[in-house]
Amino acid sequence: MKLWIRILLSLLILGIISAALIWHFIINKPAPDYDKLKADYTINANQLFEEFMSKRKNSENKYNGKIVQIKGKFKTIEQNDSLSVVVFSFGHNLFGEKGIRCTLLPKYKSEIKKHIPETEISIKGYCSGFNDVDVILTKCSIK
Asked: Cα 142 to the chain's mean position, in Å?
């Protein structure tokens, strides 16, 4: 009987240690600083949008989950309480403008106000996909 207690106690201790290590190294892992990450791809905004429109599957495999830096003339800035979204427009559809939407990191909310629409800007962000209307970049910074 004592042997079973020792085995169960050992397994319990190993389980607790394993759970602590998993929590520390995997679950509690700090988020990357997207502002400081190097761009995987640098491309013109119009080219990026055209790639997603013409070769969606290839573009999704290439860009999704990657840091992309785009350069081009932006159309508008959409702002609400906590978010600023820079819109590169390349056409219209039933629901409004279609193009690239870049959600800026909060620290760039005041800096984007200094930029005038229809001027060239360079933005780097995490490509999270294409929703049949817009290419979505999140966690963006102004470069």
From this structure: 14
User: Which H or E run includes 70?
Assistant: strand 67-73
Hey, which CATH number is domain 41-142, 3.40.50.2300, 3.60.20.30, 2.40.50.140, 3.40.50.300?
2.40.50.140
CA distance 130 to 56: 8
Structural domain boundaries in the chain = 1-30, 41-142
Digits of tens for pLDDT over the chain (143 positions)? 688 888 888 999 999 999 998 888 888 877 888 888 899 999 999 999 999 989 889 999 999 999 999 999 999 888 887 888 888 888 777 777 888 999 999 888 888 888 888 889 999 999 999 988 889 999 999 98
The structure's pTM equals 0.77
Cα gap 36→44, rounded to integer Å:
20
